[in-house]
Amino acid sequence: MERSKNGVPLIWELRTRKLSRDFGLRLDLRMAAEWEIITNREQFRFFNHNEFISEKYYSFNNLSCSLSWNCETAIISAYLRTIGYCISVGILDSTSMIEYITPALPFGKPLSGVNPGKRPDFWPSFEDMHSSEAKLNGASLQHFLNGWSCSHEVPLFASGPILTGKHGIEADLDCVVVATENDLNQRELETLFEDANRGNARGLVKKAIPKGLGRWQAELYMRDLAEPNFKIEDRTHTLEPMDNKVSFIFDHEPVAHWKFWYEEWFPARLREFGPHIGVATYCSTDDLEKISDTVGSNLYLAVKLKVSHQKITSSDVQPSEYYASKKIYGVKVQA
What's the predicted TM-score (pTM) here? Predict the structure, then answer.
């Protein structure tokens, strides 16, 4: 069964691991036995990603894929039969099983009716951050950030791929707004994004992980649905899905929004990079002032740019992670 998992998302395996830990069982063995029963009835073709992506990546690259095929069907069936076993022995009841059944559905709440939106005006291209005349480093990223304009929408959080044209490189950009009195140094920036990867909230947003995660939303949640981590006049927010965004409502008033958009799609990616989907939690410039007054601190925009080479590259940009930050709003001092 391990070979058949090649390219399959880990969303089912992670849930069986959790149940195994909670109840001291070896549900991985149970799932493997169920898989044997299924595949003995019908043979499934194993997946080899190198058959269609060799022009972009090497066979030894650690890749994640954005495809589904009949081999995945056997994995899902074995997973559902394992969950059925957990229900039959009383580990899961009719209420708790919903969380474990939903990943086998195509879409789940609260995003089932939310469509992709337009790429934000503030989202840059690689050429915006790097020209052939200038070397890409922390200083050049800082120079770009100093001139980065967010005239209408301000990203409280954003994560997505950066279009690099024909350079033969991969690039991911992450940004988050944090409340702090002073600028962030290199180590503080690295820690900020390390904490974000662990799910710790240090910025103005925190990860929201709905229990209703559908199969075709798995990659979307890899980029994160990030919701406000602050109150306005001691009020928390409610989440309201709309046509092409999710609004965060404070006392009947939307203060921030979350949306996603598609970039250039390729059926595989380097595993250390996010999917070919961009996400952003953003607000207007007027609401940014309201948020700053609420948290009572200066607001800084921190960014992280991650770059790696593809199989064939003409770029002299070195694979690395680059960081920068700038103050975007200063709290008003009371006279």
Answer: 0.82
